[in-house]
């Protein structure tokens, strides 16, 4: 114990405190050295024998003690005392194999070894902390259990992995903590745990020890059967939800619903509406409400805004009990610059690129992960697996994939760094996405991964082994942009832009597509869905009814953002609940009933989903730009009744409209958006009609229909004659 050593211990700058603190054999005696700020006396107890440890200098106490197992009792000037086990008496927790995988960047279950784990170590209860900070000079755990004093509980390096670890006895579930990191440059920062399972409620920034083990899942039947529900040949209709603004409790300060309240109310509503899946905007902990979760800090922590981790599991399990899947919006493409997050985590650009030309998103003022670093790639891959494994989620929708794939995304010349071949593709991000999909589908092929990808990057939803990115599905942003442009036009001009409704079919089967009407379409001045529609009040609702029916009968899975299902009049506001009062108005209630019936028709009619991703399930029929009419047929598997869809996108009724059909017989009117129950004029075809042996639209048989104004009529073959 040199003066320099004592000074370093007292200042919290000793480079290897485990070498001098705790029990150490000196000669033929065992000495215990401990650092105990504010203590006036320290007693080591072995069995029933107590030994007072003399003060050496400052707050360092040391003395010879007989025996290996001991506790320390600290007495303070105010008369209080505390007895605890000595953290420096415990062996490392991480195994050699874990260290090897961490160092190699291949530990797919990183959350099982990093973070804060409630555990029993060497027969003592406590919490094991581990964090990756390879360039740090010193890392300490600070929290409400040690007065946030970084000198008290410095961590030990776990070999050459860059990981620091310590076991703290008597710390329990619910404890607040951060990592105090002295960086390579000598600067000090307080950081939240990158693998923490819980966080304080923002704007507070501490991580929270959460014991996530031992949840008694009861969804075995769902898990066993869910593979079929994610299949391309199954009906998938997704309700996209921002949990903080779906409903609020204005009888309780305007707070959002809790996970447990959502497990009852949201799940029941989604089941009632007939959606097959709920997709949650990001729930990984995030500091800023206005980011809607798209700037996450705690990637392993379900946000505390709605409850602790087990209650989020309650929500997922309730959905599964109702036979509803849960997808999570996942954000591995960027993270915020908040000082308690991943930015400059150990004083260096650890998770991000050092060069802002590679590592800074100008659109969102966020940082871009360095996917070329194996430990960073492993961090995000293991996070994807974590949500699937620990929370039984049924899939991940990956945000902003286009921004990951291209180095020049939203950048001008000179603002980006080319790849090694001089091109714009981000090879490292591509490899990461492929590895993530291989890992997720390899761990559980019954889930789905979905890419929000807005460019024509090839083979996004094709297997990695055939050169694809490996996603299960891709959002069809082109379909959404084109068809909305068409619907926003006054019907008198639609004849000139007929291609906007038909051209998307040219690429409809190049990927496994989901047709999305997402939150992005009803914010930032874009107006609500009903506001986008032209015409009188009646025409607006008729237009929207026709558009939804067109969407539900087109090839591709479906996604609709909350509030759109009842034509909320206003733009979405994340600070308030949806306008449920409007949902009670007749016209809005009609839209809601239509969406419910469209979901039922979709689920119950194989021709509308079995070949969503296969080209021989679709064929054009009548297509007349001058009248703004569109007709097509959907086919299912052999033996499935075909479906004919006729759309009239003008406010002009078209009686006596002949349309060719693929088979003779009676075609029942399975749905008509002009039905009175939806708010229409109840003009239709008296339940259906028989075919005639008159050729039309390239078919040997045809029938005559009445096409109501601004409507879609869906016909299903009921029987052959």
Detailed description of the structure:
About 20% of the residues lie in helices and about 25% in strands. The strands form ten sheets. Strands 17-20-23-26-27-28-29-30 form an eight-stranded parallel beta barrel, surrounded by four helices. It has a six-stranded antiparallel beta sheet with strand order 31-32-33-38-35-36. Helix 4 (about 260-275) packs parallel to helix 5 (about 310-320) and helix 13 (about 535-555) runs parallel beside helix 14 (about 585-605). The chain folds into three domains: about 5-85, Immunoglobulins (Immunoglobulin-like, Sandwich); about 95-210, Immunoglobulins (Immunoglobulin-like), CATH 2.60.40; about 235-335 and about 370-605, TIM Barrel. With about 725 residues, it is of the alpha+beta class. It is elongated. About 50% of the residues are buried. Strand 12 (about 155) and strand 13 (about 165-170) form a beta hairpin.
């Amino acid at each position: 114990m040199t003066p320099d050593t004592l000074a370093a211990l007292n200042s919290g700058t000793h480079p290897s405190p485990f070498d001098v603190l705790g029990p150490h054999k000196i000669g033929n005696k065992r000495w215990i050295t401990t650092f105990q700020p504010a203590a006036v006396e320290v007693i080591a107890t072995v069995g029933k024998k107590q030994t007072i440890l003399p003060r050496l200098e400052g707050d360092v106490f040391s003395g010879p003690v007989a025996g290996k197992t001991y506790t320390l009792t600290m007495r303070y000037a105010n008369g209080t005392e505390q007895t605890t086990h000595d953290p420096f008496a415990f062996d490392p927790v991480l195994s050699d194999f874990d260290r090897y995988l961490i160092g190699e960047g291949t530990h797919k279950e990183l959350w099982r070894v990093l973070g804060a784990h409630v555990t029993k170590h060497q027969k003592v209860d406590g919490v094991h902390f581990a964090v990756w900070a390879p360039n740090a000079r010193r890392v300490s755990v600070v929290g409400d259990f040690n007065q946030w004093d970084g000198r008290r509980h410095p961590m030990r390096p776990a070999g050459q992995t860059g990981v620091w670890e310590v076991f703290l006895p008597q710390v329990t579930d619910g404890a607040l903590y951060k990592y105090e990191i002295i960086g390579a440059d000598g600067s000090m920062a307080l950081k939240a745990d990158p693998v923490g399972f819980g966080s304080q409620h923002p704007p507070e920034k501490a991580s929270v020890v959460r014991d996530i083990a031992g949840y008694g899942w009861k969804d075995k039947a769902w898990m066993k059967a869910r593979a079929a529900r994610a299949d391309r040949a199954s009906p998938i209709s997704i309700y996209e939800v921002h949990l903080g603004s779906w409903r609020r409790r204005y009888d309780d300060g305007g707070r959002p619903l809790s996970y447990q309240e959502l497990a009852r109310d949201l799940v029941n509503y989604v089941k009632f509406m007939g959606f097959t899946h709920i997709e949650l905007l990001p729930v990984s902990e995030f500091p800023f409400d206005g980011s809607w979760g798209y700037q996450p800090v705690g990637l392993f922590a379900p946000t505390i805004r709605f409850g602790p981790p087990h209650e989020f599991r309650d929500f997922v399990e309730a959905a599964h009990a109702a036979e509803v899947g849960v997808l999570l919006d996942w954000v591995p493409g960027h993270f915020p610059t908040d000082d308690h997050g991943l930015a400059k985590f150990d004083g260096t650009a650890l998770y991000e690129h050092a060069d802002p030309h590679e590592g800074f998103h100008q659109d969102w003022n966020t940082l871009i992960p360095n996917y070329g670093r194996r430990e960073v790639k492993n961090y995000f891959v293991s996070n994807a697996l974590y949500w699937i494994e620990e929370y039984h989620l049924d899939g991940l929708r990956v945000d902003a994939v286009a921004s990951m794939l291209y180095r020049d995304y939203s950048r001008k010349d000179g603002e980006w760094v080319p790849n090694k071949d001089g091109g714009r593709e981000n090879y490292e991000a591509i490899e990461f996405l492929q590895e993530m999909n291989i890992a997720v589908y390899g761990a559980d092929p019954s889930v789905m991964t979905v890419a929000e990808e807005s460019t024509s990057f090839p083979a996004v939803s094709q297997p990695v082994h055939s050169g694809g990115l490996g996603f299960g599905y891709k959002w069809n942003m082109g379909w959404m942009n084109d068809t909305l442009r068409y619907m926003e036009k006054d019907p008198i001009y639609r004849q000139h832009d007929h291609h906007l409704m038909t051209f998307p079919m040219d690429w409809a089967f190049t990927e496994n597509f989901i047709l999305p009407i997402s939150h992005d379409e009803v914010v930032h001045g874009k107006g609500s869905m009903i506001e986008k529609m032209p015409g009188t009040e009646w025409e607006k609702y008729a237009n929207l009814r026709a558009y939804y029916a067109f969407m539900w009968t087109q090839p591709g899975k479906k996604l609709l953002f909350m509030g759109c299902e009842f034509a909320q009049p206003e733009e979405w506001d994340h600070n308030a609940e949806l306008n449920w009062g409007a949902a009670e108005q007749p016209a809005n209630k009609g839209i809601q009933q239509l969406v419910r019936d469209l979901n039922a028709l979709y689920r119950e009619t194989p021709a509308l989903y079995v070949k969503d991703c296969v080209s021989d399930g679709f064929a054009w029929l009548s297509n007349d730009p001058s009248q703004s009419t569109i007709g097509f047929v959907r086919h299912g598997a052999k033996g499935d009744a075909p479906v004919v869809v006729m759309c009239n996108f003008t406010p002009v009724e078209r009686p006596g409209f002949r349309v060719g059909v693929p088979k003779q017989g009676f075609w029942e009117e399975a749905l008509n958006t002009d039905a009175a129950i939806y708010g229409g004029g109840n003009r239709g075809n008296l339940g259906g009609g028989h075919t005639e042996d008159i050729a039309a639209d390239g078919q040997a048989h045809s029938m005559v229909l009445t096409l109501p104004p601004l409507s879609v009529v869906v016909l299903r073959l009921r029987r052959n004659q």
